[in-house]
Amino acid sequence: MDLRRPLTRSLILAALLALWSLAALGRLAYLQVFRYGDFLARAEHQRQRIVEISPKRAEVLDRNLHTLAMSAAVDSCFAVPGEIADKQMVGRLLGGVLGLPPEEIETRLASSRSFVWIARKLPPATAARIAALNLRGIYFQKEDERFYPKRQLAASLLGYVDIDDKGLGGIEYSLDERIRSKPGRMLIFTDARRRWYDRSDGSPDAGSSVVLTIDEKIQFIAEKELAAAIQRTRAPAGAVVVQNPSNGEILAMANWPTFNPNAAASSPPEARMNRAISALYEPGSVFKVVTLSAAIDQGLTTPGEIVDCEMGAIYIGNHRIRDHKPFGRLTIAEVLAHSSDVGTIKIGLRLGAPKFYDYIRAYGFGSPSGIELPGESRGLLRRLENWNAISVGSISMGQEIGVTPVQMINAVSVIANGGLLYRPKVVLALRPAAEPSLPEQPAPRRVIRETTAATMRRMLEGVVLNGTGRLARLDGHSAAGKTGTAQKLDPATGRYSQTQLIASFVGFAPVRNPAVAILVQLDSPVGPHEGGAVAAPVFKRVAEQVLAYLNVPQDIPLPARTTRAKRNSPGEFGLADVSDFTSIAYESSETLVVSPPDVPPDPAAPAPAVALMSGGLAVPSLAGKTVREVTEISQRLGLNPVLVGTGVVVEQEPPAGTAVPRGGTITLRFGRSAPPSSPTPRSLESPLGRPSNLSTSPSTRPLSARGAGGGP
Fold first, then answer.
1. pLDDT tens-digit profile of 371-387?
2. CA–CA distance from 557 to each of 458, 462, 473, 475 (Å)?
């Protein structure tokens, strides 16, 4: 082959070009056919950014399906820094609206070219001010914000959430995976220079609504009476628990101090504590119920047996234990009624440590109750081998053992229901039913015989009729219960304090067919501090209102003066009293009533007709609107709603058409239907009053695990 010939050289060049073309085509075919998916994914990854949006949390409802926690759409502000030419100016303008240093805004803008959050879940007024600036590169995205329309009501039980709507306390935390749906996603599209040019929103799915065993009206009664007791006694802390003894369901769980879950971050940690399940205390004389019921169940004593109470003193292991007053010979029923330590200790010693320990464990002490709430304490009960010479005597009268209010009321419910221990519960159901479903309620466990429970009910009734619990007597219903006054340990001296005590009362009503069990606990009341003097009257107030609300038939005749009084004031224990959730006084420097946060409505919802008047904004007619609709409409118009009751709006103040300034307050009463017309406007204030000037120095330390049980 002669390479000098033009034809030869042309053929060689053509062959080389053909080989190169085949190689290029083969490579292109490989990239386009075999590597197509990989390169497409890489390209999409380069031009897309996924930003998670807060998930939508389902509602939390009371047992009557009234909303206790809900979510509402609000605006969050984000920026596309690649579109912003003058970041210093934008930082200065946004910082002035948001109350942030301009440098902080500039730092955020410098962290990315495609997307940065500026501020999340803004109040409508703030979002409107930012929108009015009309800044290039500043946009808004809808997110869901948690809202608690009843504010402080059941706050420690409900819990609260963080900025990402993750549960941080109460039911919001323990059932977070059920309530919280999968987060939504915002897809950001960018060009080759990382500049944003489009977005796509993916709405989050809904979680499962939680139906609680709580009744919001009973919860209101408990919180109102606890707040009033705190004001009267100046106690820094306390709790009221209402339970259905026949199945373990918690109907109310009130704690003091409390907080507003709409502004949980501004409350002190002790206000967010659920004392009913977490605060340990020595029960004092209330624990004598366990001691005497165990001895009666073992056949070691009877209510009529006479015991010598040694005129108020007994020696155990070189330790002298004194009664709160000297007693001589008392029957066992009188030992309980008058709360004799000496008489109870003698019965405890007769029972013996091993049997006594077994009954204490059978009643549920020393282990978690299993309630569906986080942070429950197991209590304090030493192992039997660690008991000393005086342990039986101390524990017999409620010393040397630590319990929680829920454990204590659950134990007394055993007496009320005939001897069965139920697991306390606060969750009634999930809607719709979730997978996996809630654990089934375990079968109740028998602790004492039915005859023993019946005997104890009669003895506890004697405490109310003739003993230390006289102030717990109810009008129209029989009641039974036990007082307790336990000394706390003084950390300065290591000895029992003579002034720092825990006053308590736990009981049930009616005696023969108990509908409710109620525990009242006040920590360190000032002045009178006996359980019979300060806690028993609270039991009376709560029980009378709850029994009237539940329409429990009266089993004893009313005194004539009480009948006349109730006829003259028919609303005293009626539903009007338990509808105004704003009448509880939360007026300490640390825990304040805060108006509901700004929650903007769904943009698709029709706006009510409203007019601007010379005196301000004309209040629209809200008759027939639900709580959610009222909240959304009020926040859209810049009004501050005060919500009274449940159902639909039946009355509003000021009336429709009245001129109010933006930010003004409107009070709305809810009910099932419109009330009959009356020449006198019905007051929206709870007739039971609004306590004020409450103690502002709640204890920040846990309750002592030692104390004296000798008081009544």
1. 999 999 999 999 999 99
2. 19, 18, 13, 8
From residue 71, alpha-carbon distances to 29, 43, 59, 339, 405 in Å are: 53, 37, 7, 50, 31
The upper half-sphere exposure of residue 72, i.e. CA atoms within 13 Å in the direction of its Cβ, equals 28
Q: Where are the beta strands (DSSP E) in 348-492?
A: 420-421, 427-431, 445-446, 480-489
Non-local (6+) Cβ contacts of 678 within 8 A are none
Peptide bond into 510 cis (omega under 30): yes
Encoding tokens for residue 117? 């959050």
Q: Which residues contact 532 (CB under 8 A, 6 or more apart)?
A: 468, 469, 470, 471, 472, 483, 485, 505, 712
3 state DSSP class of 270: helix
Instruction: Give the pLDDT confidence of 462-487 residue by residue, as tens digits.
Output: 999 999 999 999 999 999 999 999 88
pLDDT at residue 203 in the model: 54
Picking from 176, 165, 128, the residue whose alpha carbon sits closest to that of residue 143 is 165
Check residue 577 and report its DSSP letter.
Answer: G
Give the global pTM. Answer: 0.73
Distance CA 214, CA 218 (A): 8
The two three-digit tokens of residue 69, written as one number:
């926690």
Torsion (CA) 114, 116, 118, 120 in degrees, nearest 10: 120
Strand partners, 119: 77
C-alpha–C-alpha distance, residues 177 and 171, integer Å: 11
The residues, any chain, with a CB within 8 Å of residue 640's CB and separated by 6 or more, are: 595, 596, 634, 663, 664, 665, 666
Residue type present at position 643: L
Q: One-letter amino acid identity for 367?
A: S
List the structure tokens of 639: 């009004």
User: What is the distance between the alpha carbons of residues 548 and 119, in angstroms, rounded to a whole number?
Assistant: 49
Q: Dihedral sign for Cα 604, 605, 610, 616, please.
A: negative
DSSP-assigned letter for residue 240? E
C-beta separation of 284 from 709 below 8 A:
yes
In degrees, rounded to 5, the angle at the alpha carbon of residue 705 between the alpha carbons of residues 704 and 707 is 80
What's the sign of the alpha-carbon dihedral 699, 701, 703, 707?
A: negative
Supply 256's token pair: 């003091």
3-state secondary structure of 489: strand
